[in-house]
Every structure is written in structure tokens, then in C-alpha cells.
Please model this.
Amino acid sequence: MLIVPLLDQGGLERVCAETAQLLKEKYLVHLVVFNTTGMIYDVTGVDMTDLNLGAVDGRIGKAVNVLRRVHRVRKLKRQLDIQLSYSFGPTANIVNVLSKCRDITWAGIRGYGALSSKGSMRLICGLADRVVCCTRVMEQEIAMRFHVNSISTLYNPCDLTGITQLTCQMVPEAFRTFLERPGKTVAAMGRAHDVKGFWHLIKSFYLVKKQIPELKLMIIGDGNYSEYEELARALGISDAVLFTGVLQNPFCLLAKADLYALTSESEGFPNALIEAMACNIPCISVNCKTGPAEILQENYRICADQHKVYHADYGILMPVFQGEKNLEADIFSVEEEIFAQEMEKILTDDRLYMHYKEMAVKRAKAFGTQGYLNSLVKMIEEEW
Model:
């Protein structure tokens, strides 16, 4: 059984859907989703139950909702004689470990932010038979801070063949005029959440645009971007910034970009970084916890200083951003200025640009679906 809250846009949701598709050829797989509203990921051919128990407001409502989910999932586990249950994300993990019957329970910790919820982490780590992380750094920190029965790292998969095919599809008409305008394009992907740090990206982009006037910025993702649209207007660059919203196929747009930028405060394993590299795009990323260093540097431990610039093996790692969220158009942090300088450098230095363009494709191949499947099957067979 695979358990996930939603199958809308998001990293853990995509990984769950891909895991279901990969495992169904070898095992009987049952997918449990708390609510299928907004579902965009393909789970065709996978047996699925929609609990119709989406998020609710209020502490009492949330507690009752958890109990309802636990009851329903425990009943399903018994009915289907589930042998192993693998959940994705904090809310699914709680339901998984509390609904344990005769099954082996795996709790997938997909984001570094989950570690801040100490009570939840103690519960999940204490009850799960195995904790599955998506980075080595996260595995080491969880093992050090919490009691775990067993812990492993399993890097997220990237469907390189599928992405290549999707890059060949036609760009939706609504975005063609923007992308066909002269000038290079910087791209980013992610939901409109503060953790993604898009105000840093917009401010850094503004600073680069003063040196490269025709530069454009494209942000792909779901959510309310109105405050970022207002920031772009205040900076006088709204005509150079495109917010696409959520897309079934973002890769046909990504393939038109010249540079991918990641400005998150934290990540689990940034799938979008690998996907951009699979689209043959050089990458610049803040060196946040966790994931970017492990992706962009072979020996990630040598990039431990989060306040330095590293021209790493497969991309450029940048200092983490300091300070609180700031949407003031006339205030720029030191880190935003440094990020802008490195963006300008890679966009204007042809030799540096081509080097990281070639290394991006090479690195993406290390995260293909077959390697992921082999590792996952090996872990499953260790449990029998």
C-alpha cells in the first residue's frame, strides 16, 4: 500500500505516483489518497482508494479527521491483507504508523521542514519499521536526533525518457509570445509558498536585468502569486516576469529556458532541479538543506559552508538567504546581490555556461527511474 494526502502538483506526490507505476509490474499495489481533488499525476492501472477526507480547519476538526483516516486505512489494510505500507509526507506518515496491523510500515520523510515538528517526528520515527529519506544529510540528522528502528536513503526518481518526450510537445499558445521575445530566460518551478523564496529570485533577477536588459523570468507552479506580481510591478519588471500557474506539462516550457534557479529556504530532494537538468539547462541553486549539494557536487561534504559560493561539479551552489521575508522593492540583501552576480556570470560567460549545460545532462542520468526501482525492490526484499 502506498499512502499520500493528494496527487496534485508537488514533489512527494509525483514520487508516489511514479512509485506506484513502477511497482505495479512486480507487486500488487494499492494506492490510498486522502482526497483526489486537483489530481494531475497519472496513476492509470493502479488500484486506488479515495478516502474523501481532505484537509479541514480547526484543531478539533483536524484531530477527528486523523482518526477517521486511521480507521479507514486500518480497515483497508486488513481487507487487502497488506504486507507493506509506504507513506509519503508527515500527515500520511502519522496515519500509516497509527493504522499498523500486520503490515511493515515505512515512513517517507520527503522534506527537511518536517524535522521541525519534533512531536510528530518522535511519533513517526518511534513507530515506523523503517524511515525512508530522500537525502543522505537528512538520514544522518534524523538518525542523530530521533530514535529510529531502521533508516535508509532513497533518492527520488526522474523519468528521463518521459521528460525528453514532453519537451518536444508544443508550448501552449498563451506563453509563446513571451518565450519568443528576444533575450534569455531564467526559469524556476514550485508552488507559491514562502519556503520557495521567490521574492529573493525576483529581486536577484531585477539586479541582473539591469545588466542584461532583455532577460526574462518564468515561474511555473500552482498557487496565489499576487504578492510576487506586485513586487515585479514595484520593480518595474512585470512585463519580463511570467507566472504560468500549474501545468500538466511544464517541460515543454522548461526546455525553452536558458538557466534554472532555485532559491528555497529548505528542500527535501528538489525534483525540479533534476528535471531542469534533464531538460539540458544549467542550474544555479542556493545551498539549502537538503538536496542541492548532493545533486550538484559529487562529494557534497566539501560544500558544507552554506555561506560560500561553490562552482560545484554539476552546477553553482550559492549562500543561503538570510533574514525574514521582505517584499520591499528598494531593499536588497547581500545574498540577493551575490545570487544576481553569479546569475549574470553564467549567462554572459559562454565557456562557463556550456560547461554546466553539458554537466547538467550528465548528472540527470544518475537519477533515472531504473536505478530508483532497483534500489526500492532491494529494500522491499530485505523486509521479507
